[in-house]
Amino acid sequence: MPLRPLSSWPQSLRPLPVSLQPFRLRSCTVARWAGALALGASALASAQGAPDGQLISTQGANGAPACVTCHGAKGEGNAVAGFPHLAGMGAAYLAEQLEAMANGSRVSPVMAPTAKALSPAQRQAVAQYYAQLPSPLNIDRLAATAQQPAKADDTGAWLANRGAWDKNVPACNQCHGPGGIGVGANFPSLAGQPAAYIAGQLRAWRQGQRPPGPLGLMPAVATRLSDAEIDAVSAYYAGLPKAADLLAAQATPAAGAKP
Ligand code: HEC
Ligand code: HEC
Fold this sequence. Notes:
This protein is an all-alpha fold. Helix content is 49%, strand content 0%.
């Protein structure tokens, strides 16, 4: 959908008051406000009845809890609790995941009730909202980690950067980007996701508890990995933002002083 990112809205208009929730209002009312407030393209989309993704994230909808409670105020996730970051990931990817968790093809006891409570349009809107938030990742620093030679006895780093070609597993970074920063709309970022979350997804593919995704690429990868490899590569990506900061600090002590 050609919605302008919410970030391009004037700060004073974010977040909209509860009473402006577009899906609770008749469009003529919103249209009048939109005109009066000169909100531009985004508001006109709202005026036509499109749900507001930001409102869903801060307040929930249809009984679904606010996403910010678990995924953080900026979609940055919560590593300790095991909640993945969402900010800056592809909109189509996020919407598909919500769809899959709603219809049960992606098994997620925590997310299923929330995903089901949202309408398809609400899932789209909240996915769009998270996609346009700035990624919590330091892209340059993470990418620099991929320039480091991987040690053969460091299973996680080796899989991420070199793969396991003896069993046809390409390097994870070949699809997920240098340092696992994510590529385009279909290859989600891995860096900084909680280790338990990454491992959980790989095991879900092995057990048929998550849809195959584009070209069935991930089931092909996950079914070829041993348990030890899954744990190693998950720990590697979870710890990569810290490792990237350390690397940057070693390269330029001054720049590394502020994280
Ligand atoms: C109670 C905590 C909680 C709340 C509230 C919550 N989530 Fe989640 N979310 C999770 C957990 C845990 C996972 C990982 C699920 C899994 O292991 O399958 C997740 C996963 C996701 C994913 C998949 C991410 C990926 O990288 O594939 C999306 C998308 C998502 N949540 C969106 C939302 C949205 C949108 C809302 C608000 C409407 C929301 N979540 C509310 C805990 C929560
Ligand atoms: C050939 C390309 C390719 C390779 C190589 C690859 N992946 Fe993926 N990966 C994907 C695609 C595509 C998706 C999105 C799947 C979907 O849409 O459900 C994905 C998704 C994931 C996810 C889910 C992320 C989330 O937010 O839920 C994890 C975890 C993951 N990959 C880990 C790995 C690991 C670890 C490796 C290396 C051992 C790897 N991938 C190698 C293509 C690849």
